[in-house]
Each structure stands twice: as C-alpha cells, then as structure tokens.
Amino acid sequence: MALDVSDRDRWAAAISAVRRRTTDLAAPLSAEDLQAQAMPDASPGKWHLAHTTWFFDAFLLTPAGCAPERPASSGYLFNSYYEAVGERHPRPDRGLITRPALDEVLAWRSRIDAALERFVRDADSDRFRSVAPLIELGLAHEEQHQELLLMDTLALLARHPDAPAYRTDLRSAAGPAQRRADWIEHPGGLVETGAGPDGFAFDCERPRHKTWLEPFALADRLVTNGEWTEFIADGGYANAALWLADGWDTVRREGWTAPEYWRGEGQATLAGLETLDPAAPVQHVSLYEADAFATWAGARLPTEAEWEAVAATRPTTGNFMDNDILRPTPAGGRDQLFGDLWEWTASSYSPYPGFRPAAGALGEYNGKFMARQFVLRGGCCATPALHIRASYRNFFHPHQRWMFSGLRLAKDL
User: Fold this and answer.
1) CATH number of the domain that 91 lies in?
2) 386, part of any domain
3) Boundary-marking domain end, from 157, 191, 208
4) Cβ atoms within 10 Å, residue 158
C-alpha cells in the first residue's frame, strides 16, 4: 500500500475500499449461496465475510480496547488456523455454521468498519505508527480472502447441474486466436530474488537473497486449452510414464481425465458454462497435471527463481480482478507474465535463507505451512491488481486444482 503513516485520510480510504470490495463481491450471491460449502478445502462465503472481520477484531481492535459487540463464539467459529489464539471450529464443517445468520455477520462487519474508522481518526501518532504494519497486513489478508471467496464460489456453482453464473454481466473473455509460443531467453548467472526491505510484502517473500541460475528460457504465454486437448487425445491421463508417482496415484484414485470443471467441450466458469476456447489458457490444473504436461511437451516447469528473474523486468500488468472478467483471456504479448492464472513452479514452498517467522500468532501466517506444498507465481483473474508483485509467493498442495491455476513451460538452454 506504501502509505505515509501521517496520511490518515488515505489510510481510511484504503481500509474502506478493501472492506467494501469484499461485501460487493458477496452481493450477487444469495444467503443460501453464502452458507453452502462446496468441499472441505473451500469455505462458505459467509465464513469469509466473518473471518476477515474477526481478523481486525482479534488482532487490532480488541488489543486496542475498542472492539465493538461481536456475535457469540465468534473467536471459535471464525479463527482459521491461529493456534496461539485458541481452539477453532473444524474447517470441513464451516458450512454447518448457520448461526450467526448472514444479516448478523454483515451487521458485525459494519460495526467493525466504524470502529476501524474511529481508530484511524483518533489514535495518537505513536500508537498508529506501531500498528500501521498490522493494518497493512490485515488489508492484504482480506484481499487474499476476496480471491478465495471467488474460488470457493466457483467450486460451489460448478457442482450445480446447471453450472449457473456467479454474475451474468461479466465482461467478455474473448481474445486473439491461438498462436505459437515463443521463448523468453535468460542468460542465467547470479540473480537476486525475494522482496527488498522496503514496502509491504509477506514474511515468506523475505529476505532478499542470491540464487544461481543456469541459462534457461520461459514460454512467452501460458499453455492453452487447445494444447491440453492434444495432451488428452494423446493419452496423457493414461500414460504412467509422464507422471510423478504421487500424481499417477492421484489420477487413478480420483479418476481424472481432464482439468477441473471441464464438461465435454465446455467448462464451468464464474460467467456460467462456456464453450472451451482453444486459445485461452488452460485452468484449474494441479501441479501433478502441470508437470505431466510439461514432460509430454518435452519441457519442464520453471523454478520460482527463474520465473521471478524474468518477471522482475516486466510491468506488473495483466488480467486481474479489477478487469471485471473473472476468467483467463487468450495470452497477449511477451510481457504477459502477470494475471490470468497462477502459474505452477517446480519449487517447493520452503523458507528463504535467513527466514524467521514473526513472534506471536501472526508468525503462523505463512511459515508453518512450509511443507509438502509448491509455489505458484503471477496472480490471476481473481487477484486484486494492487495485491500482486514479482516476489509474491502463493502456495498450494500439488493435488489441488480448484484455484485459478495454470502453467507456463520452461526449458534449459
């Protein structure tokens, strides 16, 4: 956000804008939509509305002694994973939290919003300066949940026989016809990756450090539906030689024959059931599928350091939530490294050299998840535009694919 601590008006405006966007994203959904939980990995929309409210209540307003009235048991119901804060409701059962009702959650949000406005206006300079990083983290946290709300909404609506649209007024995802991928070459060498000391970044993006890269190249666009159709036709999902062992076990156990949400020649999207565009990036694929495709294509997935070395020289522009499309569009020019879809890398989600988690409950934000997950880069069509940067590290388990995930190929030079 990079706001001057003394500029209270801009802080208040930023808080208001982020909080309002969450409720705006939920507005097209019915109370029934917001109550349901598509699967254990997803959460109901109502839970996202409540959890992002609980975050400011628990970590800012309650310690400051200015938290307003809250629903009963909110600390237990809407804590996500903070062990230091206390016990919490089981994640797979969040859809069973019928109380508090949606209107009560929204009323609580309004009270918290008013309390945040008063705090920003009235806190003395030293106090505000001390908590400004926490407010900035809270806003970034809420932006993450805005994307999660859309992911989880698609997971829910895609299970309906009619695959109804989240919104019927989304802008078109049409774009140019499929073109051959070109390669962006990089000479390798000693590069610096990770976030620098200035500006906001999550703790897992730091410290900035040096990494040695051998010469490599990245494809200048994402893999497309058309290319994935060729992979399927060539028996990609039936050829064990292409798959990591865990991936092959997953394919057989889950019965995968195509990406998530594919229905014949169509795919469920936030705009409803749409015909597959061969030129559009393939989406909702797991790390296992991405790796198998790369092997089939005679290429590989990039490491996160390779991806960042190229992306750091490109503008942070692309198809983000703000474009009001909410699904990927056919790839553009050589600078298209951000937006559309999160891109799987071959890098496990692990700490950078010198990483130290923060003290207390907020130290649980990222560090404790650094096992058995892989890094994705670049943001997606459901990511707020100002939320992303070249050093941003997203992470998911290798079998997961309900998020907006795709892939870009890499090769050695």
Assistant:
1) 1.20.120
2) yes
3) 157
4) 20
Give the span between the Cα atoms of 284 and 277, in whole angstroms.
Answer: 15
pLDDT (tens, 9 = 90+) of the chain, 413 residues, equals 556 777 899 999 999 999 999 999 999 999 999 999 999 999 999 999 999 999 999 999 999 999 999 999 999 999 999 999 999 999 999 999 999 999 999 999 999 999 999 999 999 999 999 999 999 999 999 999 999 999 999 999 999 999 999 999 999 998 777 778 899 999 999 999 999 999 999 999 999 999 999 999 999 999 999 999 999 999 999 999 999 999 999 999 999 999 999 999 999 999 999 999 999 999 999 999 999 999 999 999 999 999 999 999 999 999 999 999 999 998 655 567 999 999 999 999 999 999 998 888 888 888 899 999 999 999 999 999 999 999 999 999 999 999 999 999 999 99
Residues linked to residue 403 through DSSP beta bridges, in sequence order: none
Q: Has residue 341 been placed in a domain?
A: yes
Is 402 found in the same domain as 301? Answer: yes
The CATH number that applies at residue 365 is 3.90.1580.10
> H or E segment at 77?
helix 74-77
Report the C-alpha gap between 215 and 282 in whole angstroms: 27
* Domain enclosing residue 74, as ranges: 8-157
3-state secondary structure 50-76: HHHHHHHHHHHHCCCCCCCCCCCCHHH
The C-alpha angle 92, 395, 345, rounded to 5 degrees, equals 140
Question: Would you say residue 194 lies in a domain?
Answer: yes
**Does pTM top 0.85 for this prediction?**
yes
Same domain (yes/no): 140, 20 = yes
CA–CA separation, 209 and 224 (whole Å): 33
Task: Name 221's bridge partners.
Answer: none
Distance CA 366, CA 204 (A): 6
CA within 13 Å, CB half, 343: 33
